[in-house]
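=== RUN LOG ===
request id: a7f3
mode: sequence -> structure
chains: 1
length: 361
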Amino acid sequence: MNGIKEVKEVGSVLIDSALAEISPLDKSMMESAQQRLDILTKPKDSLGDLEEFAKRYVGITRDKAPTIDSKTVFVFAGDHGVASEGVSAFPAEVTPQMVLNFLAGGAGINVIARHVGAAVKVVDIGVNTEFDSAPGLLKRKVVNGTANIAKGPAMSRGEAIKCVETGIEIAREFAAPGAIFGTGDMGIANTTPSSALVSVFTGLLPAEVTGRGTGIDDKSYARKVEVIEEAIRVNGPDASDPIGVLAKVGGAEIAGITGLIIGAAAERIPVVVDGFISTAGALVASRLHPEIERYLFASHSSVERGHRAALDAIGIRPFLDLNLRLGEGTGGALAMGAIEAALKLYNEMATFDSAGVSTQE
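=== RESULT ===
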C-alpha cells in the first residue's frame, strides 16, 4: 500500500489487493481537459466547480469524453445495539421497516433517484431481520446487527473485514464504463457510531462532532455524548488501525460504505458521498489509502455537527447546502445531476473557434 503512512496491516487479501489497485488520477488527461475547458465559449473558469468536476472526472475515468451511462445509489442498512441506550428518537424496528419502504419505492431516496434517473440498490449487510428476496435488494448480511458499543466492540475484527470486503465485491459487481455510484445508509442510531469514528480519526471530542441525528431532545443528546465517550473509553480504538476502529466503534453499513468506496476507486468509478454516515465511511477509506479522496465527490453539507469535521479530515468540499439530515443517499442523488451537467457542458458546449465567437483580448 504505497504512500500509506503509519497504518496497520488490514489482514485481508481482498482489501489489500483492492487498495493496491488504486492509483493517482491521470494528470496528463486532466491537463488536456483543462485546455478544452479554457476554449469553450465562456470566460475562463466561469463555470466554477462544474469545470473542476469535469476535469477530475476525466482524470478518474481516463476517458477524454466521459459520459454518465448509469447511476446507482447503494443504501447500506444495518442495526445497532447502541440504540438501546436511548440515543435515537426512533425505535430500532424502524430500520427493517424502512428497508421495506425503500424496496416499495416510497422513501425520499426513491423519489429523488427517480427524478435523476438513478437505480436504488438496498444492501442488507447488518439488519437484525430476514427479508424475502425482492427486486433491488442485495442480501449480503454479515451480522444481525452490531453490539452495543458502550459495552464493548461493535463487531469482531473478522466481521468488520467481511463488511468492507462485501462493499468491495459490490463495487466490482456493478462496475461498468460510464458508471457513477452514490452512497446511502439506513440504520437507527447510526449517527452515534459515526460520531465515534469521526472523533477517533480527527482527535476532536465527542461533544464537538455529535449532532442530534433524528432530532433528539436535550436530555437524549447529553446521553448520546456520554455514550460515545464511554464507547471510546471502553474500546480504546487506535486511529492507526482503521479496520480496528470500525470493528470497535463502527457499524456494518458504515464498513460496507468504506468497502464500496475502496472498490470503486480500484475500478476508477467516481463516488458521490452523501451525508454524515456516508462520510464517516469515506473517512475510514481515506485512512486506508491517500488517493481515495480524489475519487470522491462530496455532495452536500449536512446539519449534523460532525459532518464538516469529517469532510475536512478527508480533504473534500461539499457543493450543496440544503440543510439536509435524512441520509439514505438523498443528497448524493441530487448532486449526481450537477455532476452530469458538468460533463454535458464539457462535452457539448461549443468552442470559440467552432462557434465563430471572438476570444477575449
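=== NOTES ===
Strands lie at 70-78, 119-126, 137-139, 179-186, 271-273, 296-298.
The chain has two domains: 13-66+345-355, 70-339.
=== END ===
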